[in-house]
Each structure stands twice: as structure tokens, then as C-alpha cells.
Specification:
By secondary structure, the protein is mainly α. It contains 35 helices and no strands. Helix 22 runs antiparallel to helix 23. The two termini are about 60 Å apart. The relative contact order is 0.03. About 10% of the residues have low confidence.
Length: about 575
Amino acid sequence: MNSRTVIIATIACAVLGCWLPSLWLPGPVEKVRSILPPPATAHGPAWQSLQGKVRGAGTSMQQFQAVMAGVRGRGAALAFHTGDMGDLLCEEAEELAARLAGEELGAHVTDGAAFIKSLRDCNSYVTDAALEAWADADPDAALRGLIADASDTHGVADTLIQRIAARDPDKALAILRASPVSPSQSSARNEVWTAVLAACAEKGPDYALAAIQSAPRQAKDAGLYSLLSKMAAEAPHAALAWVEGLPPELKKLTDDSVIMDIWGETDPAAALADWGQKRPGLGVNDPVGRNLANQWAAKDPEAFLQWATAQGESGTPFLRIAAREIASRDPQRAAAMADRMPAVALPRGDPNFPPDDSEANTELRDLRWAIGNEWAQKDPAAALAWAKSLPSAGERAYVYNGMRAYLSELPKEERLAIARELGTGTNAGFQTLWEVDRAEAGKVFASLPAEEKLGNFSTMQNGLTAESPAAAAGLLEGIIQDIPDTPEGTQQSSSARNLSRYVAEVTSAWAGRDPAAAAAWVRQLPPGESQAIAAANIALTWGRYDLPAARAWAEKLPAGASRDKAARQLAILTAASGAE
């Protein structure tokens, strides 16, 4: 048995209180001359024998022993019927039976192409074990077969190819270069090259470099990545020096970022220090430096905070990273850190929040959003008090939006006051008002200009549609009246396109729950594009599970675009179902 099967067997035996050697004694193994599965209706003597032994067993341990005895020597015949072994009571035993059957199936392969093809009818345990056994028994044939079978359609066994290739990279490269490429292997062949080059990386940088230079252009990038990842994990300084000596045609395919990323996983402080020496004036706009800073902050936020503080004014962007990480542990402390940072304001002209006079500092704004989100989960009242203390009205609205989901337990009067303070026409204020007093929110919505209606609807559309498509449709109706239809043959405005999308999504959801109610709503809409889109989506959704009822409804629609679009959808469904 291979190592994976031994592990599964050990777990199963431990669970059942038996010991592997007493169950898996040496015995005859049938020779496999044909690996094609037996007909599904003819399970054969081996399958009948196993079924009888298992069904005649009593306890889980006895069933397990029966499976072990029943599979031995009959794996090739049983491998294609493991899906029927659902009454063994022990999942570990079922998995072990499948793996043992797969091992026997893969140990005596005579026709690699037919063998691989037949495995597509087996479960994953059988397939994995069979391929592993084939690779152990005849690695060269297995590698040739797996390379030939690699396809853009059903994928590549890249992990196994890499493991086989690592045994003898020279032979693997020779087999790969000699293998013909079919039209269905354009992407798959690159994946095969990547797996083989990753195996070459295990033999050393000089050997791997020679292999990479001989690889197709599309595979060189991945080959270099595998090699540099391995080198960086072992000796990042040496890897950086080695990159400097690469030939120009390869050096342009990579950079130090690969090495720094791997180095940052183990020692982000040292990696950031090294990167900073190479990049004077390092800031968070440098993607490599920012990634290293994030890695360090996640690993040791206190040490990172000390380093960022020592950088003086240039360390402010890094202090934000530290505060964001600390927020998950101590949001009050993170808030105090943020409050000591430079003031923040929203961009001029932001349509969702009140405008401010100063320029944007979105990083600090987003930091406060994250702090509020974390704090509200732990102490909603304290988080809300902090949010109210923020100096910018726009930022207060922005931060409150990140907290809103966790403030539902606050008194209704307090949430109404928040909505009015934020402004009931803003996204944050309107959503809060909607959650507290829908009747009042409906009046506010009706008084808003069309674009503000659309903006407010867009921020709550997904949740509202899932909760109550009828309520979402009621808001949409007010927007439909305000945004005129686009004449046929002319380009829709962005507002009209968004409205059409929302109408389609809401009516589809509503028709899935209550098609009659959705259909009645469509009939009372003003004729035009929105009504036609709604009718088409109701016909499509309703017709999928009750085609006659959908037809009867569509036939009663007034002549026009709505009836035509609904009829087209139903005609498509009728043709697909074969109905008349």
C-alpha cells in the first residue's frame, strides 16, 4: 500500500479497534489484462462476493474486516463499483476499500490511454490511488500517459507529474519534449511544463536554469517562479544575488518581488529592512513594501508598530497598517491611534456622502471604517459614540455604514436620531431609516430626485431583493416613473441601464417565489422598456417550472413589447422542453 492508503488504514483500524497486519495479509492479486470497467448491469462474482460478505457482517469492525478480505485480489473488478458501497457504516473503511481497489487497478496497467480513460468513471479515491500505483510500478509509462492525456477540457494531473518527474528530471524532460502536442493541449501543455520545471528546481538552480532556458516561452515564467520560490525559502539573500546574474532574456521575466514575497512569509521584518535599503523613501505605494508591511503586521503587530513609530513622519502610512491589524484585537486602542493621525475628508463631489472642502485621505477613512466595524461587533454603544465624535460629516456616514449591521439592538429612537443626523437622503441615513421605519422611509424615497433614488436603491438592492422582492419592486416603481424610457435604437444612459438590470433581478426573484403577484405588478407598470424586461424575466422564471401557467398569463398581456418579449422567452423554453 502507498503512504496515503496506509494512513487511511491506520485511522480506520484505530477507530474500529483492529490492527492492519491482521487484516491485510499477503494474498494473490489478479493480473489485469483489461482495465475497462465491467458493464454496469453485470457486477460480476467479485462484486457479489464482497456484497455478501459485507451485508452478512455484524459490527462496524466486522464489516471493515469483510471489506478488507473482499477487496484483496479483486480490486480491478471492484474499482468501478465503489459508489455502491454506501452501507459499510464506516466512512474510513469505505475510503480504504476504494483506495485498495484503485491500487490493484493501477498496479498492472497494459494500456495507459484506456486505463486513464476508464478512471473517469471512478470516484476520486480510486482514481488517485490507481494513478499513484501506476506511477510507482512504471513511472516512465505513467509520465507518458499523463502528459498525453493532459487536456484543456479535463485538466492536468500536475502534482503527480511533478512527483514522477522529480525522480529523474532528465528523463522527464526527454519524454516531455518527445510528446506530440494536440490542439486540445494549448494551455494544458504549459501546465505540464510548469510541473516538470518545478521538479527540475529540486535538483539545483544551475540545472533548473538550463531546463528553463530550453522550455517554451510561455512556460519560462512559471519555471522561474518555482525555482525562485524554492531558493527564497532556503536562502533569500543568495536568491537575490542569483537573480542579478540571470541572462537578460530571463531577467526581464521576473523580479525581486517573488523572492521578497516568499521571504516575507518567514521573516517579514528582515525582508522589509532589506527592501527598504534598496528603495530609499519606501512608502506604502510600493506594492512589495506594502505587502511586506502587511505580513509583518499580521505576524507581530506590536513589533511592527514600534518600527513604524520609529520612522517618524514617513512612518504614518505604516501606522495605519498597524492600527488596522490591532483593531481586530483592541479597536479602542486602534481608534486612538487613528485619531492621532492627520485629519481625513471625503473626495469632493462624492455622490454618496456630504462633500468636504479638503482633499481625500481614503486610507485613513478606510482604516476608521475597519475600526468601527470591529468595535461595533464587540461594543456597539461605545463604537457609535466614537463614530459620532469624528469631525467630518461625510466620514461619520462612511464609518457608520461599516457598523450598521451590528447596531440593530440599539433602541429605535436612537437609530432614528442617527438616520436624521446622517441625513435621510444619504445612503447611510436612508438605509438606517428603512430598517427602523419603512413607512417614513417610503415618504423620504418618494421625495428624492431620480438619481438619488437609484443610488440609494443600488446600495440595498441585493439584501432587499433577497428579503422581500415585493418591497424592492415598490421602490423600483418610483424610479421607473422618474427615468424615461430610451427610444428604441438609441444608446441607454447609465441610469437606464442600471434600472433595467435591477428590474430584471427583482422580477426574477419575485417570480421564483410568487409568480402571480409578480405578474400582477408588471401589468400595472407603464408600457415601456422596464415593463417589457420585467415581463420577459417573469416568463422565463415562471415557465421553467410551470410552462402552461406562464403561457396562459402571457397570452392575456396587451399587445406590445411586453407580450412579445414574454412570448419569445416561452418559445425558447417550449423548444428546449420538447413540449408543444
